[in-house]
Amino acid sequence: xxxxxxxxxxxxxxxxxxxxxxxxxxxxxxxxxxxxxxxxxxxxxxxxxxxxxxxxxxxxxxxxxxxxxxxxxxxxxxxxxxxxxxxxxxxxxxxxxxxxxxxxxxxxxxxxxxxxxxxxxxxxxxxxxxxxxxxxxxxxxxxxxxxxxxxxxxxxxxxxxxxxxxxxxxxxxxxxxxxxxxxxxxxxxxxxxxxxxxxxxxxxxxxxxxxxxxxxxxxxxxxxxxxxxxxxxxxxxxx
Length: 239
Prior knowledge:
Layout: E1 29-32, E2 40-47, E3 56-62, E4 70-72, E5 78-92, E6 98-114, E7 120-127, E8 135-137, E9 140-144, E10 148-151, E11 170-172, H1 204-238
Antiparallel strand pairs: 1-2, 2-7, 3-6, 3-9, 4-7, 5-6, 8-11, 9-10
């Protein structure tokens, strides 16, 4: 199934769609598990309501041109299809394979329409482009038993995104993580702290040395006593 793509409105007409749709009280949102440039991310799209009370039957998610491969997560309540598009020029991936097409759209179709007032999520696994600071736009068309919600609007320059009636979900790419950032989080490069002093106070080493000296002195005294006792015993026997 190929759901029609709706062209993004021009910047100056972002808020004026020529579509007879009812305003929505909540948006289709997107939550990435990472936004680092070049990272493999899982993007979670969430639909929280229908179309002016009508149950949702289809959710079609358009992919940005910078994304080539997408792995959708299965959802038991929906069938899922990837719609492919030919590339103008083939590219070579990181493994040396020639790529001639890309995922243009991912379409979830409900086995049973999603009732208005209930939400569901759709997870897509993909690699983010190595373009820190760039914002990726994922237009979504939500089709219902009656009507549709075209979440495709982008703000004009200087426009507050909150003014949009049907904003498209977006992801802004951040700087790539440095090597090792994902391992040993919270570890410190500082030398470990010296052991704390004992509860009796400082000078524990001196006390240990004094104790050892006393023990040795006592041991010497005991040995001397044994020797003296032995001599006295020998003399008494001779007598």
